[in-house]
Amino acid sequence: MTKKTLILSIFVLIAGFTATGQEGNIKFTEYDLPNGLHVILYQDHSTPNVITSLMYHVGSKNEDPERTGFAHLFEHLMFEGSKHINRGDFFKIVSSNGGELNATTSFDRTYYYEFMPANQLELALWMEAERMLHANVDTIGVTTQKGVVIEERKQVVDNAPYGTWMEELNKRLFTVHPYRWHIIGSPEHIRNSSFEDVYNFYKTYYVPNNCVLVIAGDFEESTARELVQKYFGDIPAGTTPIVRPTVVEPPLGREVRDVVYDKIQLPAVFIGYRSPAMGTKDAYALDLLTSVLSSGKSARLKTNLDDKGLAMQTIALNMEFEHPGALYMVAIANAGKTAEEIENAMNIEMERLCRELVSEEEFQMVKAAKEFEVASELTSLFSVANKLAEGQTYFKDAGRINNQLENYSQLTREDLLNVAAKYLVKENRVVLYFLPEPQNN
User: Fold this and answer.
1) What is the spatial distance between Cα 205 and Cα 194, in angstroms, rounded to a whole number?
2) Is 82 helix (H, G, I), strand (E, B) or coil?
3) CA-CA distances (angstroms) from residue 95 to 81, 90, 216, 301?
4) pLDDT of the residue at 320
5) Residue boundaries of the structural domains of the chain
6) Are 300 and 349 in contact (CB under 8 A)?
7) Measured by CB atoms within 10 angstroms of the end CB, which terminus of the chain is less buried, N or C?
């Protein structure tokens, strides 16, 4: 047995052992309130903490094409306070009681959570019920947060080197689907939206029948049920129809190429491929294939671009979207290298994946790494809460958390070859060169 084979065998053994110890052991209770709120309770008494999280099934894909950015705007607005919480006090109350909180917005959902000492569960539930029922969606808060969001876009998108890459790719990858615009949205749309536009978005989507509540950690179920009923039971269900996009993006059918000039010093290549929706067999296979390209010291992009001095940084991102979405490949050139050179090297790797099976060693390594990743997630209270919420939100099945590895263990090298030949082809992609702005003489 070679040294490399021995290391691989040990890695597989460790990952498999860890996964066996965790997979299938997440026991939880779930039920619905009459107002439609889906409640999931996961008890873990190994830590004196509790997470209260709410996942609203609304993201940027639910927005009006002429009013983009609302989902992300509400991520900010929901911290403005409420009828019984003074403006600006949301963070203060949580931190002064030993907790922390945050929120994130995606194309498909908006997620809020508080991580608190176990004895502060009631406080967290009261605060979340407060902003579900009567958040401070008023002219002061809306005006303030519009300004904050527009400034955020300037900092992280418009004025950041390569900051517009995802927006530039997506608006070419998608022609009719709402994934085509940036999650932060258009500054013009945000600026010109009326108070009524914003308030109607709140009353439509921030309702119990569009939400999954997960309580995870050190609590007693009977107590949690009483508190959920106390704070959420009387909140009325929403009555406005919720927009669920059903548009199907037509095949790209050809390679799309373009150049973006930016305030940068090094050229870069950004490639976007159309990819399958989350939860499909193809999505799991493409996830492993992305790891072959970009995970670990022996990843193909690293060894054939970074290590050879072509690129200073490379990455492949398999984004998990509720609808068919995108896989991104990024390479930033080293000084003196051109976009053409690094694209040629990237193309070689794509063509190899489309015509050759990945090696057995690569295959076992990425599967072992995925097993280790899943097992590690199941030891994290935050990850468990998030996975339970995602399973219910997207698939109406929180129990998916207990069979994640099955979706990967059944894959073969042939499956990876098939998805490469299906998705990682030129007629299914957009190629963008980001080049330094021309110097004015």
Assistant:
1) 17
2) strand
3) 15, 9, 19, 42
4) 87
5) 27-232, 256-436
6) yes
7) C
Q: Tokens standing for 178?
A: 């709402």
User: Average of pLDDT values for 290-307?
Assistant: 92
Please state, in angstroms and rounded to a whole number, the distance separating the CA atoms of residues 211 and 31. Answer: 13
pLDDT digits (tens, 9 = 90+) for 250-271: 999 999 999 999 999 999 999 9
Distances (CA, A) of 32 to 121, 123, 218, 229, 423: 19, 21, 21, 11, 39
| Fold entry, domain 27-232 | Cytochrome Bc1 Complex; Chain A, domain 1 (3.30.830)
Determine contact, residues 366/295, Cβ cutoff 8 Å: yes
340-349 pLDDT per residue, tens: 999 999 999 9
Assign 295 a pLDDT band (cuts: 50, 70, 90).
confident
pTM above 0.85, yes or no: yes
Q: Would strands 38-43 and 211-217 be described as parallel, antiparallel, or unpaired?
A: parallel
Radius of gyration of the chain from Cα atoms?
A: 23
Can you identify the CATH homologous superfamily of domain 256-436? Metalloenzyme, LuxS/M16 peptidase-like (3.30.830.10)
Facing residues of 39 across strands? 31, 213
**Which helix or strand (DSSP H or E) is residue 326 part of?**
strand 325-333
